[in-house]
Each structure stands twice: as C-alpha cells, then as structure tokens.
Amino acid sequence: MTLAPSPSAASRSLRDRIRRRGRVQSAADRAVLVMHDVAKTYPNGKTALLDVDLVIPEGDFVFLVGPSGAGKSTIIKLLIRDEIATRGQVVLDGQDLARLPRRAVPKIRRKIGIVFQDFKLLPTKSVWENVAFALEVTGSPRRKIRPAVDRVLALVGLTAQRSQIPSQLSGGEQQRTAIARALVHDPRLIIADEPTGNLDPLISWEIIQLLLRINELGVTVLMATHDADVVTALRKRVVALEEGRIIRDEVGGAYHRAD
Amino acid sequence: MIGFVVFSLRRAWQGFWRNALMSIAATATMVLMLVLLAGFWIIQTGLLSALDFTESKVEVVANIKLDAAPAAITELQTRLEAMPEVAGVSFVTREEALARFQQSMREQGREDLTKYLDSNPLTASYEVKLIDPSYATPIADRLREEPAVRNVLDTKDTAQNVKAVTDILRTAGTVILLVIGVIVLFIIVNTIRLAVVARAEEIEIMRLVGASDAFIRWPFVFEGAMVGLLGAGITLGGLYLLSDPIGTFMVDFFRVLPLSFGSLARDLVVLVTSAGLGLGVLGSWLSVRTYLIR
Ligand SMILES: Nc1ncnc2c1ncn2[C@@H]1O[C@H](COP(=O)(O)OP(=O)(O)OP(=O)(O)O)[C@@H](O)[C@H]1O
Ligand SMILES: [Mg+2]
Questions:
Q1: Do residue B139 and residue B205 come from a single domain?
Q2: pTM
Q3: Cross-chain residue pair A138–B212, CB shorter than 8 Å
Q4: A52 has which bridge partners?
C-alpha cells in the first residue's frame, strides 16, 4: 500500500478555478441567465415564443415589455422551469434547465426569487410566517430561519407589520411581503411578473423603488410590466416582445420604441 | 432528516385540524369502509370455520358384522390406523350405538321405539376420520372388501359438497375483499384529494419557493396515515365494545367455539390496522401525485 499523494479531485478543481480567474471572463460567463434560440409551443399548438436570444448579466435590471399575449409570462415560466422550452437552451446560473433532472428543479428555484401580480400569500399566516414558510418548506434549520426572516422584513420595511395577516395589509404591503419572501433564500435573480399590476401608481412607485434598491445590493432583477410611465422614466434596459419574438433590446430604452 | 420528519408530522397535524370537517369526513369514510371490511371478514371466517368443522366430521363409518371375531376386529383397527389417509379411528360398541340412538330420539322429541325390543339390534362400528375428504371413496371401497365389515356408510357426497362450498367461499371471499379494498381506496383517494385541492394554493407556493417533492408529499402521507390509524382505532374500539354480541353471534350462528375468538380478534386487529394505514398512506400518495413537479 502506497501513501504517495495523487492529485485529488478537489485540488484539481481548485487549480482550474485559479486558472480561470486569470482569464478575462466573457459576458456569457458572467451571465445569470442565457436564452439561446428558444422556442416554446404549448401542447395545444400555440407558439408563444420564437427565436428568443437573451443574455442577462449579473447585476442587471431588465424590463420585459410587450402587449398582452406577447409571451412575457411564458419566458418567466421557462426560467422557473414551470414549462420546458420546445427548442433551444435556457441556461440559468450555468445549468441548462431542459437537461436538469426533475429532482434538481427545487434547488434551482431557490436561486430565484419569484414575485407575482397576485402576491400569492397564504391568507391564514402572518407576514413573518409567510416569509418563514419559504425557508421551512425547503428544510432550513430553525435557528437560521429567524435571523433571515427578520433581516428581509427590515429590508422591505415591514418589521412593524410582522404579525399581521395579509387581509390586514394594503396591496403595497402585501407585495412587499411577497418580495421579502422572494429574497429570503438570498437569490441571485429576482423575477417579477407584473408586480405592480394590482397596485395604484403611487404604490407602484414604492415597489419599483424597493426593487431598485434590491438591485443595488447586487441582485439581478427581471421584471415584466405594462407600466409605461415607470419603464420610460427609469431608462433601464428594456426587452420588448411581440408575438413571441424579441423586437427590441436596448439599454436606457423607453416603453415604446423611440421613433 | 429529523427536521424533515418533525416538519412533516407537524404539518400533517396542522393540516388535519385546520380542515377538521374534511378530516372527519375522511375518517368517517375510512371507518365505514373498515367496518364493512371487518364485518365481511368476520362472516367469511365464521363460515369457513363452520365448514372446517363440518369437514372434520366427514368420515367413513364401517358397521361390523355381529358375528365377527374380536381378534379380527382389533386386527382391522390396527390396519386402519396404519393407513396414511386415516386421521383417526374410533370404535363404537353396540351399547354406545344404542345409547346414541336413544339420545337422538329424545332430542328430536320422538318416542323411543327401542324399549319394545328385547335385544340390541345395532351393530358395533368403526368411525374412520380422514385427513382429507377426497379419500372417502377409496377408503370406503377398501373397507367393503373386509370380511369383518357388514356394510359401509359412505359420506362421499357430503364430503365433496363441503369441499366445493369451502373452495368457492375462499375464492369468492378473497375476490370480494379485494374489490372492497379497491372501492375503499377509490373513495379514500377522492376524500383526501379534496383536502389536497383545498390546499392547492399552498402547494403551488411551496413549489415556487423550491420545496422538494418530499416536503410537499410527506405531510399529506402522514395526514393520510393519521386518518387511517384513527379510523382503524375507532373501528376496533367499536368492535371491542360489540365483542360480546359478536362472540355470541359467532357461537350461535356458526357454531364456532369461543376459543377461536381470541385468535380471531388478533387477526382482526392486524387486518383493520394494516388496511387503515395502508389505505390512508396509499390514498394520500396517489392524491398529491398530480401536484408534484412535472
Ligand atoms: N398553458 C398554455 N397553454 C396554451 N397556450 C398558452 C398557455 N399559456 C399561455 N398561452 C398562450 O401563449 C401566448 C403568450 O402568453 P403569455 O402569458 O406569455 O403572455 P403575456 O405576455 O404574459 O401576456 P399578459 O401581458 O397578458 O400577461 C398567449 O397567446 C397565450 O394564450
Ligand atoms: Mg403575463
């Protein structure tokens, strides 16, 4: 029996990493999300997406706009692997979602925070419990749950309302609870599907401000919206869809094409 | 792992009480089905043991000639006992035969005609018990050739009838128990599915925040197990309270000795508990399946 050292898998991968750090990273390397040549046809034959190419680098803030039925929600369903692309690749954090085994899906969803128009809060649970729920059901140990929930509630400014149930909250507060829940896993990417769709303009601005602040903390944000005022005012990156195709992708764009 | 089990049990408990009405409905369905199952099983077991009892009575009776030599008679007994098909041989003397006859007349309330006779007209006989009723004919044929034997009473027909009935009952009983099981499963799946549908929103959120299938499924499976065990407990409790009338019924109706009721009760506990648990768990397992990650 020899005790001669052999290069272990661990030290090999460490060397790889050091070598890679010296190299200039390409945009795709740093991307949280890459969609390449994606098409989605639903089982009923409806083609909702076609020829979609989209790269979202780490730290970006992206508006996804387009008329109703353009395919915005379909893109989001592909990203959370609620649906699988008919063609092309959807690569999230380096993993091709189409080739991801079923049991790996929950893990990838924990890297994404999802926010919907209808909040999707549990009506019988308090704000605190709704946020803690996301950690509980993913098997986080209890001692880690308390500080994590307290931290995100402070971040969204709901510490005072922590024990109220959703029906005792305003729409904006409900959406902030949902955002807190989306943040509690420390995701790299927040995906929001019309998060201000149910809110009046003033409250909508509040939610947008919150998402911008989260983005400043380094979290990538992808937000589908119909809110032309917000998109035009902020001059962020705008990806416009129409009939399933990306017709415009510009940094500093407005809601409508600048003609 | 322990955290997961605690989580699932806690959620199962909460789920059971949060939707108390639904849980009570599921438990009541379970109890109804288990009572049906237990009742059917009791009747089947009773019938089978009654038939077993009859079956054990099946025998070949050989009447001995009045003038047969005592040596020939004992020699015949030795040979009978040596036969592998024979379970037991008992000798009935002429006096015993007469006493039996008189008693049966008395029991039937008929006049004892033997008192008008001045001698015992009955013969002595060998009652041969067989290890299986199907041996009745060959043994009867062999006995007819014995010189000491006057005639042979062959209960062949009874034997075959009993065997046929027992076989049918065993098969039909198993089939009916299985059919009841499937119906129960169907009803339980649908009752538990109602509970699952009532929490579809919660399951959707769990999926969106990245809960694994196990975290979604096991609370429901434990809840199903709770319904099953509770149902089994209620069923067995009810049967226990009714055990005296049931015992009397078994004895009166099927002429099963109370002695066998102890082992019957044990079998019943095992049957009802495992059926309840199995149906509850399987029912929930099937009910949540459609809600897991596609
Ligand atoms: N599950 C489905 N099965 C079949 N067709 C679907 C399904 N989901 C969406 N579609 C269709 O795909 C197209 C794109 O839908 P999608 O929900 O992505 O639009 P959207 O851009 O989000 O619209 P909105 O702004 O109204 O939310 C629509 O024509 C829609 O009818
Ligand atoms: Mg949509």
A1: no
A2: 0.73
A3: yes
A4: A38
